[in-house]
Amino acid sequence: MDSIVPKVLRDRKDIFDSFVRLAQKNLGSIDIEITLENVLNHFTIQDVSGMSNPVFIVGRADKKIVIRFFLSATADFALENKVFEIASQKGYAPEMIETDSSTYRVEQFYHGGPLTHLSLADPAVYKQTMRLLCDFNYDIQLNALIQDKSLPKALEFIENGPSSWYWQAFF
Known about the structure:
Helix content: 40-55%
Number of helices: 9
Largest sheet: 5 strands, antiparallel
Order of helices and strands: HHHEEEHEEHHHHH
């Protein structure tokens, strides 16, 4: 069983407890003892984590959600959530179901995939993609959020090079 359980859920009780609470709240409660085995028997869990934050697609019956935990030391999650919320309201991103702006975000799941060079060869796909990118990049409301923000964490990442968290974690 352990091979299919995401490591962070096995090793971090705080994240496991939050994960179960969020999954039950958004997909329906399970009236059982909360153990790793029971959770696996009642929810489908797909680990789609990136390099810094645990991200799971969680499902039950015909509904799926995305649960994203914020663990990275280099991001401004309040700003990220505000950008995500606005992008969601304008249809650029999935619906944000809930967040506490500092430790997690629950998002709508919809199946999709990356654009390929073949799909971008279709004029309709190309035009829609370029329109959405332009709308997103020049959105007045989104740009106002980042005008006064410096990037101290990003600068720390660049300036500290090999002593930064990323270099220590992956090299």
